[in-house]
Amino acid sequence: MILIMFGAPGVGKGSQAKILSEALRIPHISTGDIFRENVANRTELGRLVKVHMDNGLLVPDEMTIGLIMDRIYNADCKSGFILDGFPRTLSQVEHLGRSLKAEKRSIDTVVNITLDDAKIIGRLTGRRVCPSCNLVYHLAYNKPHNVGRCNKCSSNLVQRVDDTESTIVRRLQVYHAQTKPVLSYCRDRYVVVDVVSEDDIDDTTRNIFRSLGLAAIGTSDEGSQYMRLSNGCA
Ligand code: ADP
Ligand code: ZN
């Protein structure tokens, strides 16, 4: 299954992509995570993308498209993958469509997660992230068990440099101007499901599973199990 998690910054694309990735056992590919990793490891790519990210602007397509095209040809993407934060421009979605078509594959579903801009600002200013394992928390909606510490690896949580109010406003402008047209493009060509981002992460997950025609059937150590519902609704 090839899924695209779509939506403005702060709607919870990444959190939901992680859950789906475990349930469906297909890789979660986040351009933001890949870029932040490169910045943290001081690679050449990291040096080039940092200024764009810190200012809330998109990283140029030349640095983004090739990276993702290479990644989705990895063997682990054979039975599908989940893209989070890509495509964000018309050129990106066109390239992706062409590359997949050359392999007789296609995007199965675009999950469009929606939330008002006013609520997005609250979500992003309260967001805290684990710099080691990339888990995402929120001061009100998704608190860590111990204040300021990651549940999984106990690292000190940090605020992303681009989660300040002025940069958030810029990122929302960029989303409306450059990324939103990707949604209309997808509506004409692929299956798009619209899901409201609820304050409760589990509620949003349930809605996404339902719109994808998937029902959770309990959890195991290796991650959630799922099954596809024959009639497509739970
Ligand atoms: P969010 O969705 O919260 O804005 P991401 O982690 O997806 O955060 O992205 C962080 C930053 O990384 C973006 O503001 C942008 O600078 C860069 N970025 C991520 N994905 C892309 C992309 N597909 N094209 C261009 N820039 C990107
Ligand atoms: Zn952690």
Description of the molecule:
It is a single chain. The protein has one domain (2-115, 165-229): Rossmann fold (3-Layer(aba) Sandwich), CATH 3.40.50.300. Helices cover 44% and strands 18% of the residues. The chain has 8 helices and 9 strands. Strands 2-3-1-4-7 form a 5-stranded parallel beta sheet, sandwiched between helices. Strands 5-6 form a two-stranded antiparallel ribbon. A two-stranded antiparallel ribbon has the order 8-9. Strand 8 and strand 9 (223-228) form a beta hairpin. The model is unreliable at 218-223 and 229-234 (pLDDT under 50). Bound molecules: adenosine-5'-diphosphate (ADP) and zinc ion. The site of zinc ion has 8 residues, from loops.
Please describe the topology of this protein.
Elements (H helix, E strand, L loop, with lengths): L1 E5 L6 H12 L3 E3 H10 L3 H11 L6 H12 L8 E4 L5 H13 L6 E6 L2 H9 L1 E3 L6 E3 L26 H25 L1 E6 L4 H11 L2 E7 L2 E6 L6
Parallel strand pairs: 1-3, 1-4, 2-3, 4-7
Antiparallel strand pairs: 5-6, 8-9
Helix pairs in contact: 1-8, 2-3, 4-5, 6-7
CATH superfamily: P-loop containing nucleotide triphosphate hydrolases
Along the chain, the helix and strand elements come as EHEHHHEHEHEEHEHEE
Q: How many strands?
A: 9
* Spatial shape: globular
Strand-pairing-aware structural class: alpha/beta
What is the fold-level CATH name, i.e. the topology? Rossmann fold
The total domain count is 1
Biggest pleated sheet: 5 strands, parallel
Mean of pLDDT: 92
Kindly provide the name of the CATH class.
Alpha Beta
Q: How much beta, percentage-wise?
A: 15-25%
Distinct compounds present: adenosine-5'-diphosphate, zinc ion
| Poorly predicted spans | 218-223, 229-234
Q: What is the straight-line distance between the termini?
A: 19 Å
The spatial strand order of the largest sheet comes to 2-3-1-4-7
